[in-house]
Design brief:
The structure holds 3 protein chains of 3 kinds.
Chain A lengths: L5 H30 L4 H23 L7 H26 L33 H7 L5 H9 L26
Helix pairs in contact in A: 1-2
Chain B lengths: L24 H6 L4 H31 L8 H11 L7 H36 L8 H20 L18 H4 L6 H5 L2 H29 L12 H32 L11 E2 L2 E2 L8 H35 L6 H14 L15 H27 L10 H24 L1 H7 L3 H31 L5 H28 L20 H30 L56 H9 L3
Antiparallel strand pairs in B: 1-2
Helix pairs in contact in B: 2-4, 2-5, 2-17, 4-5, 4-8, 4-9, 4-10, 4-15, 5-8, 8-9, 9-10, 9-11, 10-13, 10-15, 11-12, 12-13, 13-15, 13-16, 15-16, 16-17
Chain C lengths: L20 H30 L6 H4 L2 H26 L3 H31 L8 H28 L5 H4 L1 H31 L4
Helix pairs in contact in C: 1-5, 1-7, 3-4, 3-7, 4-5, 5-7
Classes of the chains: A mainly alpha, B mainly alpha, C mainly alpha.
C-alpha cells in the first residue's frame, strides 16, 4: 500500500469509529425489531436488510472493498452469482415437484388428471422417496394426494404406515 | 549450481537474506517448498493411488465375470481374510466397499492430484517464467494434507465394518445408516465416518492448492507474458483452480453435516419416519436426503471438469509441439474453456433427473447441460483441426494425445443422451453411465496424463523414456481399455444397472449381455499387464534412460528454456522475458521450425543461423 | 545450493493487478469461505421451508448473550483495523495494544459461547434434538472454529510473528492487513448468523 499521510490516517480512523458505532446501533435496532411482531415475511425481510447493511459496512470499510481493485470485485461477483444459483436453483427444485402439486409451480388440483396407478406422487415426495413408494399402493388416492400437496411439505410421522428400507451392511460380518 | 549470494534480480543479498546454505535431506526432498519437488511428490503418490484403485476394480471385475466363484488367487484370498471373502468368494459388502473406494481413490487421490497437483505444480511456474509458486510453504502444506487424507482413506479399510460402501457419492440416507454399532466410538471408527474425515482433509488440500495456482498465474507471469500468450495448459489450470476454489466448499459443508448425522445424531439428511431393518430410526427427522445430493453434485459436477481440463491442456501442448504448427483457434480455446468453467456450476442436477424434480427445473438443467456441450465440442474441434496441415511426428506422447481425441469424443457424445432428461430415464444408473464417464476419464484424461508423462519426463529427470516400450504401452492400453468400456454401453442400453454385486445375473433382461462381463474382465487384466511395461519403463529410464538435450522435443514454451532438470529458482540466468506467443512453430522466414517464447526477434534470427 | 528465491509482489503490488500476492490469496480463500457458509445458510433455508414447525430462536437460545457476543465481535473488528492503522503510523506499541484487544475480544466471544453451549446441554438441547438445534450447533460451531483459527493467527502475529516488523516492516503490515481481512470476514459471518438463528420469527 502507498504511504498515507497522517491526516489521511486520522480521517480513516474517524471513519472506522463511525462504522463501528453504526454497527452497534444496527445491532440494537435489529434486536428491537425482532421483538416487534412484524409477521414472518416482514420480520425476515427486516432482519436480512439490516444484516446486509451491516455486512456491507464491514466489507466496504473494514475490508476496504469500497476502494478495492476490479479483480477482487470480479472474484466476489462470481462467487455471488454461484451462491445465488446454488440456493436459488435448489429452492426452485423443491418448488417444482413432479405432479406440480406444491410450491411455486403449483397447479390447481382440478386441472390435474388423477393417475390410474397408485403412488405416482408419493413415489416422488422429495423428503421420503423410497420408503413411501411401496406403501402408496395401499393408501386410497385422494387423501394421500392432498397430504403430498401441502405446500409446507409436511413431514408425515404418525399416519403413514412404516416401511422398511433394507440395510445392506448389517452389523459386522465384514471386519 | 553454485552461485554468489545475489538474489533473482541481481541485487547482492545480506547474509540474513540468502537461503543458499545447504538444506538438510529432509528439507530438500521431503518437506521441500520447491514446486518441482512437490510436483514430483504429488506425481509419485497419485500414481501409487491410481495403481491401487485399479487393483480394487480388478477384484470387482472377477466377481462380475464369475459371480459367486472363488478368486483363483489363494494368496489374495488369505490376505483379505474370511470376513471379506468367505470361502474365497467376495462378500457383497466387500464388493460395495471396493466400488465406493475405487471411485473415491481414482477421482480424489489419483487423477486430480496427478493432473492438478503434479502437472500443475511442476509446470505452471515454469511455463509462466516464475521461480516458484506464489506461496511455497502453502504448497508444501497442501501436499502433506493430501498425503494425510490419503492415509486416512486407506485406513478406513481396516476398521470394523470395513470402508465406506455407499458409493463414492455417499447418498443419504444409506450413507448415514451404515454404522456397525450404536456407540459414539463405533460411529467414529466406521468406514463412512473416516471417509468423511478423509474428504475434509482432501478438500482442504485442494482449496489451498487452487488458491496457490490462481494467485501464481495472475501475479507471477513473466514480463511480456500477456494473457493471450499463455500456453493453453496454463489457461486450463487457471479455470480448474477457480472450479476447485468455489465448488468444493459446499461439499465440505455437506460432509460436515453428514458427519454430524453419523456422530452427533442430527438429521440433516434423514427424513422423518425413516425405518431401518424394521425399527424406526430414533432421530429428530425433518431432514432432506435430496439436500445431500444437491450439495454433493454442486461440487461433483465441476469436479469432472477438473478431471478433464488439465488433460485438454496437456493434449494441446503435445499436439502443437508434434504438428510443428500453432494450435488452431487459440482464442476460441481460451473463451471456450472460461465459458465451460462458468457453465459447469449450473448443470449439476442432471445427475438428479430421476429424483422427482418437476419438468420445469428438469428442462432448465437439461438446457444448461446441452449448452455446456458447445464449448466442449469447440475445444475438441479446435484440437482436431490443429492437426490439419501439420507435420505430424508420431512420438509416443503424440500417440496418446491423438488417441485422446476420439476417446474423449466418444465419452462426450455418450454424455448427450444422459443429459437429456427423457433419455436419461432409461439410462440413469445403468452401465451406460459407467461407460460414459470412464471413456472421458480413462481413455480420455488418463491417456492425456500418460502423454504428459512421456512428454515432460526428459525435463523432470534428464532422461528419456524408452520409445519401443512406450509404443507397446500405448497400443496395448488403447486396445484393452476399449475392450473394457465399449461393452458397457451395450449392457447399459440393455438395462443392466450399475453397482450390482452379481453383474446382473439375477435379471432376465440382462441375460443376453452377460457374457460381455467376461470380455471386460479379461480386457482389464490384459490392461493391467500392459501397465507393467509402463511402470518398468518409467523406473528403468530414470536411471538408465538415454540423456537428451535440454529441449528434446524442440518446443517453444518456457519450461524447455531451463537447464535439465531445472534448478531451485528455475531460471538461473534471471527472469525470462516473453516476446511472442506460445506456439510459434514453422514461422515463415526462419530456417528452424520453432521459435522459443523468450527469444526476441534479434535473438531468434541469431539462433536460427546456429547449427541445430 | 542455488540462488536465493525471491517471490516478487510479496510486498509491493504488481502494477497491472494493483495487488500483492497475499491479498489476492486471502480474497480467494474468503470467496471459498463464502461458498462454505453459503451452503450452510442454504441448508438453513431448505430445512426451514421444508419444516412444518420451525422454532423462534428465543425459545431455545439466549438473545442477550448473543447480542453481547455481536457487540464483542464488532468491537474486535474495530480494534483489528486499528491495529493495522497503527502499523501504518509506524507505532508498534499501539499495534500490540490493539491486536491484544482483538485477541481478548475473541476470547470473550468464545467464553460467552461456551456458557451458551453449556446452558443448552444442561437443558438437554443437543444437535440431535431437532433440525433447528442441528443447524444452530453446526453453524455456530463452525463459526467458532473459525474464530479459534483467527485467534491463533492473531496470537502468532502479536507475539513471535511481530519480529518481522524489524526486518521487513512493509511485509509485516501486509500480513496484518491480510489477517484483518480474515477476521472481518469472521465478524461478517456472525452478523448474518445472529439474526438468522436468534432473531428470525418461527413458523
Amino acid at each position: 500500500m502507498s504511504e498515507d499521510h497522517s491526516h489521511d490516517i486520522t480521517k480513516r480512523v474517524k471513519i472506522y469509529m463511525a462504522v463501528g458505532a453504526a454497527l452497534i446501533i444496527g445491532t440494537i435496532i435489529t434486536v428491537f425489531a425482532a421483538n416487534v411482531h412484524l409477521g414472518i415475511i416482514l420480520g425476515i425481510a427486516v432482519a436480512i436488510i439490516i444484516a446486509t447493511v451491516k455486512g456491507s459496512l464491514v466489507a466496504g470499510y473494514f475490508m476496504h472493498l469500497f476502494s478495492e481493485r476490479k479483480l477482487i470485485y470480479g472474484i466476489l461477483a462470481l462467487t455471488a452469482v454461484f451462491i445465488v444459483a446454488m440456493v436459488g436453483l435448489i429452492l426452485l427444485t423443491y418448488g417444482d415437484q413432479q405432479g406440480q402439486h406444491s410450491g411455486i409451480f403449483k397447479v390447481s388440483p382440478r386441472h390435474v388428471q388423477p393417475h390410474a396407478a397408485g403412488g405416482g406422487h408419493e413415489a416422488t415426495h422429495p423428503e421420503t422417496a423410497k420408503p413411501h413408494a411401496v406403501e402408496a399402493e395401499a393408501v386410497p388416492q385422494q387423501p394421500a394426494h392432498q397430504e403430498a400437496a401441502a405446500p409446507e411439505e409436511a413431514q408425515p410421522s404418525q399416519p403413514e404406515p412404516k416401511q422398511s428400507t433394507s440395510e445392506q451392511p448389517e452389523a459386522g460380518h465384514v471386519p | 549450481m553454485d552461485q554468489a549470494a545475489v538474489n533473482y534480480h541481481g541485487v547482492p543479498q545480506t547474509h540474513a537474506e540468502t537461503h543458499d546454505h545447504e538444506l538438510s535431506f529432509w528439507r530438500k526432498y521431503i518437506f521441500s517448498t520447491d514446486h518441482k519437488i512437490i510436483g514430483i511428490q504429488y506425481g509419485l503418490t497419485s500414481l501409487c493411488f491410481l495403481f491401487f484403485g485399479f487393483c480394487l476394480v480388478m477384484m470387482m471385475r472377477w466377481q462380475l465375470a464369475y459371480p459367486g466363484q472363488a478368486l483363483p488367487w489363494p494368496w489374495l484370498t488369505k490376505l483379505l481374510g474370511d470376513a471379506r471373502m468367505p470361502g474365497g468368494v467376495m462378500a457383497p459388502e466387500f464388493y460395495n466397499q471396493l466400488g465406493a473406494m475405487h471411485g473415491t481413490i481414482m477421482v480424489f487421490l489419483g487423477v486430480v492430484p496427478l493432473a492438478v497437483g503434479a502437472f500443475g505444480n511442476y509446470l505452471v511456474p515454469l511455463q509462466i517464467g516464475a521461480q516458484d509458486m506464489a506461496f511455497p510453504k502453502l504448497n508444501m502444506t497442501s501436499y502433506w494434507v493430501y498425503f494425510l487424507g490419503g492415509l486416512i482413506m486407506l485406513g478406513s479399510f481396516f476398521v470394523p465394518g470395513g470402508s465406506a460402501q455407499s458409493g463414492w457419492t455417499s447418498y443419504s440416507p444409506l450413507a448415514n445408516i451404515t454404522v456397525p454399532g450404536n456407540s459414539l466410538e463405533t460411529a467414529l471408527l466406521s468406514g463412512q465416518t473416516i471417509w468423511l474425515i478423509g474428504m475434509v482433509f482432501l478438500i482442504t488440500s485442494s482449496l489451498l492448492g487452487s488458491i496457490n495456482t490462481i494467485t501464481t498465474i495472475i501475479q507471477l507471469r513473466a514480463k511480456g507474458l500477456t494473457w493471450m500468450r499463455l500456453p493453453f495448459f496454463v489457461w486450463a489450470q487457471l479455470v480448474t483452480g477457480f472450479l476447485l476454489v468455489l465448488a468444493f466448499p459446499p461439499l465440505e459443508a455437506a460432509g460436515v453435516m453428514q458427519l454430524m448425522d453419523r456422530v452427533a445424531g442430527t438429521s440433516f439428511f434423514l427424513p422423518s419416519g425413516l425405518v431401518v431393518s424394521g425399527k424406526e430410526l430414533l432421530v429428530s427427522g425433518g431432514g432432506s436426503a435430496l439436500l445431500w445430493q444437491h450439495l454433493f453434485w454442486f461440487l461433483a459436477h465441476p469436479e469432472v471438469y477438473v478431471l478433464i481440463l488439465p488433460a485438454m491442456g496437456i493434449v494441446a501442448e503435445v499436439i502443437a509441439n508434434n504438428t510443428r504448427k500453432p494450435l488452431w483457434g487459440y482464442k476460441s480455446l481460451v473463451y471456450s474453456v472460461v465459458f465451460l468453467g462458468f457453465m459447469s456450476f449450473i448443470v449439476w442436477a442432471h445427475h438428479m433427473f430421476l429424483t422427482g424434480m418437476g419438468t420445469a427445473i428438469n428442462a432448465f438443467f437439461q438446457t444448461t447441460t446441452m449448452i455446456i456441450s458447445i464449448p466442449s465440442i469447440i475445444i475438441l474441434t479446435a484440437l482436431i483441426l490443429s492437426l490439419w496441415g501439420g507435420s505430424i511426428r508420431f512420438t509416443v506422447p503424440m500417440l496418446f494425445a491423438l488417441a485422446f481425441l476420439p476417446m474423449f469424443g466418444i465419452g462426450g457424445l455418450t454424455g448427450l443422451p444422459l443429459g437429456l432428461a427423457t433419455a436419461d430415464i432409461h439410462l440413469h444408473d445403468t452401465y451406460y453411465v459407467i461407460g460414459h464417464f470412464h471413456y472421458v476419464v480413462a481413455p480420455g484424461t488418463l491417456f492425456a496424463l500418460f502423454a504428459g508423462i512421456y512428454f515432460w519426463f526428459p525435463k523432470v529427470t534428464g532422461r528419456q523414456m524408452n520409445d519401443t516400450l512406450g509404443r507397446i504401452h500405448f497400443w496395448g492400453s488403447f486396445i484393452f481399455i476399449n475392450g473394457i468400456f465399449m461393452p458397457m454401453f451395450i449392457q447399459g442400453m440393455a438395462g443392466v444397472s450399475r453397482r450390482l454385486y452379481d453383474g446382473g445375473t439375477t435379471y432376465l433382461h440382462a441375460e443376453h449381455v452377460l457374457t460381455l462381463n467376461k470380455v471386460m474382465t479379461h480386457s482389464a487384466y490384459a490392461l493391467a499387464v500392459v501397465q507393467f511395461v509402463f511402470i518398468g519403463n518409467f523406473f528403468w529410464s530414470i536411471w538408465r534412460g538415454r540423456k537428451p538435450k535440454d529441449n528434446p522435443w524442440d518446443s517453444t514454451t518456457l519450461e524447455w528454456a531451463t537447464p535439465t532438470p531445472p534448478p531451485h529458482g528455475n531460471f538461473p540466468a534471471g527472469p525470462p522475458q516473453v516476446h511472442r506467443g506460445p506456439y510459434e512453430y514453422s514461422v515463415p522466414g526462419y530456417e528452424k521450425d520453432f521459435i522459443p517464447q523468450h527469444l526476441s526477434d534479434d535473438e531468434a534470427k541469431k539462433k536460427d543461423k546456429e547449427k541445430p | 545450493m542455488s540462488a536465493a528465491i525471491e517471490i516478487p509482489y510479496n510486498v509491493e503490488e504488481r502494477p497491472d493487478t494493483g495487488l500483492y500476492n497475499a491479498k489476492l490469496g486471502i480474497w480467494l480463500f474468503l470467496a471459498s469461505e463464502v461458498m462454505l457458509f453459503g451452503a450452510l445458510f442454504s441448508t438453513y433455508v431448505l430445512l426451514r421451508t421444508g419444516a412444518e414447525h420451525w422454532e423462534h430462536g428465543a425459545e431455545f437460545l439466549s438473545i442477550p448473550m448473543a447480542t453481547v457476543n455481536t457487540a464483542v465481535l464488532i468491537a474486535s473488528s474495530v480494534t483489528m483495523v486499528m491495529s493495522w492503522i497503527s502499523l501504518k503510523m509506524k507505532n508498534l506499541a499501539r499495534f500490540r495494544g490493539f491486536m491484544g484487544a482483538t485477541i481478548l475480544c475473541g476470547l470473550a466471544f468464545l467464553v460467552i459461547k461456551i456458557f451458551e453451549y453449556k446452558a443448552k446441554f444442561d437443558h438437554g438441547y443437543l444437535p440431535s434434538t431437532s433440525t433447528f438445534m442441528a443447524i444452530y450447533f453446526t453453524m455456530t460451531g463452525l463459526h467458532g472454529l473459525h474464530v479459534i483459527g483467527g485467534m491463533i493467527v492473531n496470537g502468532y502475529l502479536w507475539g513471535p510473528g511481530a519480529k518481522m516488523w524489524v526486518t521487513e516492516p512493509q511485509r509485516f503490515t501486509n500480513r496484518i492487513e491480510v489477517a484483518g481481512l480474515y477476521w472481518h470476514f469472521v465478524d461478517l459471518v456472525w452478523i448474518f448468523l445472529f439474526p438468522t438463528l436468534y432473531l428470525l420469527p418461527g413458523k
